[in-house]
Write a sequence for this structure.
């Protein structure tokens, strides 16, 4: 038994559980996002222990670099209304159902762990070959056996980008266009307050300015 | 010795925490973050099982199936990014419509 390995695992696991708990418990969504960041970093550490170096890097880039930042953008865009302080309606039902669910889940987990420790059927983790989880073996698999889902995932991301833009923009573009058209329509219709030949005033002024320029 | 059981138990604990948050919290942003917690826990289990299946020499024997769990986790991360982008766009649209991020006030289809 390697105490360093054990300590590394339990450190990462404890940080992950703490991050997940702070996501669920935090009143302020910014703190929740920070807890999510802690969870993601510790999961990346666990991936490193599992010989999945490429996935650890992807985890850091995509989750910590993109998703958490996107969450923070939206939370700061919404400002103080992103947190819901008056969260009291039906709290009894929610607390009871959440406690019931958590107790049921942890009881099932405890039963499974107990059965596993009784039967002593453990799955050891042998040290894999060199290059397992590295970028060239992973990339070879990704571009040979998993090429179809890989291309499909690119289509998925494309559709998600278009859908996100369409949903987040909403009908704002239509409204502003109609408002602009309304302004143009207001400008072109003659106002009853002005004299009928008011356009002649401006043309006289323009002619006067032009003659002044000519004389100068 | 750290076995695959440790990782699976950690994954189950994280999944339970995330699902409780998904069920109990009403802030849509926190709900989305709880979904992320659940998907991360699934990734841990997938990568741990992939590692435990890899005996020495297996990389040459069946190279195509050597990284199945990690490839699954990779695609989960891709789908997750897409889901978060669309989900946050929906949150913004909901806020523009109702000036709220509470999921119980998003009741436009009620009655």
């Amino acid at each position: 038994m390697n105490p360093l390995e054990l300590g590394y695992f339990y450190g990462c696991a404890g940080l992950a559980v703490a991050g997940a708990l702070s996501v669920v418990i935090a009143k302020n969504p910014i703190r929740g996002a920070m807890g999510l960041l802690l969870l993601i970093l510790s999961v990346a550490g666990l991936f490193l222990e599992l010989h999945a170096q490429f996935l650890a890097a992807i985890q850091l880039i995509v989750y910590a670099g993109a998703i958490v930042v996107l969450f923070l953008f939206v939370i700061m865009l919404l400002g103080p209304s992103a947190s819901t302080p008056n969260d009291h309606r039906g709290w009894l039902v929610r607390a009871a159902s959440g406690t019931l669910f958590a107790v049921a889940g942890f009881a099932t987990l405890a039963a499974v762990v107990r059965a596993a420790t009784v039967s002593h059927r453990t799955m050891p983790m042998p040290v894999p070959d060199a290059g397992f989880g590295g970028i060239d073996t992973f990339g070879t698999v990704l571009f040979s056996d998993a090429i179809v889902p890989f291309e499909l995932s690119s289509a998925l991301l494309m559709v998600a980008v278009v859908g996100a833009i369409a949903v987040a923009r909403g009908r704002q573009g239509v409204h502003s266009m109609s408002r602009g058209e309304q302004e143009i329509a207001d400008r072109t219709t003659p106002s009853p307050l002005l004299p009928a030949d008011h356009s002649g005033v401006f043309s006289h002024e323009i002619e006067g300015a032009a003659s002044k320029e000519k004389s100068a | 010795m750290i076995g695959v059981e440790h990782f699976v138990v950690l994954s189950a604990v994280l999944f339970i925490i995330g699902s409780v948050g998904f069920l109990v919290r009403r802030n849509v942003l926190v709900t989305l973050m709880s979904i992320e917690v659940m998907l991360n826990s699934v990734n841990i289990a997938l990568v741990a099982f992939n590692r435990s299946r890899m005996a020495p020499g297996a990389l040459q024997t069946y190279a195509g199936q050597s990284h199945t769990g990690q490839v699954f986790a990779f695609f989960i991360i891709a789908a997750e990014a897409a889901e978060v982008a669309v989900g946050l766009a929906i949150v913004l649209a909901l806020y523009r419509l109702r000036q709220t991020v509470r999921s119980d006030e998003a009741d436009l289809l009620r009655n």
In short: Chain B has one domain: 4-104. Chain B touches chain A through 79 residues (CB under 8 Å). The CA atoms of residues 17 and 54 of chain B lie 30 Å apart. The two ends of chain B are 58 Å apart (CA to CA).
